[in-house]
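Quick sanity check, Glycosyl transferase:
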Amino acid sequence: MKVSVITVSYNSQEFIFDSINSVNNQTYENLEHVIVDGGSSDNTMDIVYKLAKRKPIILSESDNGIYDAWNKALSLATGDVICFCNTDDFWPEDYIEVAMKTLISNEDSVVYGDVVMVSRENLIKSSKEVGYYCEKNIYRGFNFRTTSIFVSKSIFDFVGLFDVSFKIAGDSDWLLRAKNKGICFTHANHTVYMRDGGISNEYESTAFKEYIRALSKNNCANLKSYYVFFKKLIKSLIR
């Protein structure tokens, strides 16, 4: 199956070199790299045009945030399978090959993996997040990173595009819609390396507030989800 790797960027010259090279170096052969840029004013696009080698499809224009950019990329993608490589991420050479071994026998699933967080400066590993989906704990989140997912293009056609009214939790909203449509979630053994962005307490609180909105929109909110939200809010105020 052909894999479409989606990368969206905006003034990402600091790290996009590693991101593109990790796609270039994949052992999996049948792939294309869809790169959608938000109209960068730095050297991002110079790097993209110079480095992108895996059947690149490139677009650079202003957008309405990451979910709008992802939607544009999905409209350009021609692969059977979609995955995402953010500009702060990089992969082992067999990343796609390992993930596809699981997806081939689980084409009706969202296949997710693990994440290793690394420092932005010297790439020292800080922590590993092992993906673990548990439906009864959905009020807390999906417990895996969207950056690690592999999804058949047919599932995107079935579930629909990302809701651009979200600024942080649009991927969670999409996953909730997929869940409500009966899509399964399957863990695989691939691992993405993600640079730690140092998310602030304020950002974390805002992100979970959006997640509560996504839960409510998809009829998945309950008292536990509101309890967790207010607990996070109070904790951030105390800090």
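Posting the structure with no commentary besides this: The first strand starts at residue 3 and ends at 9.
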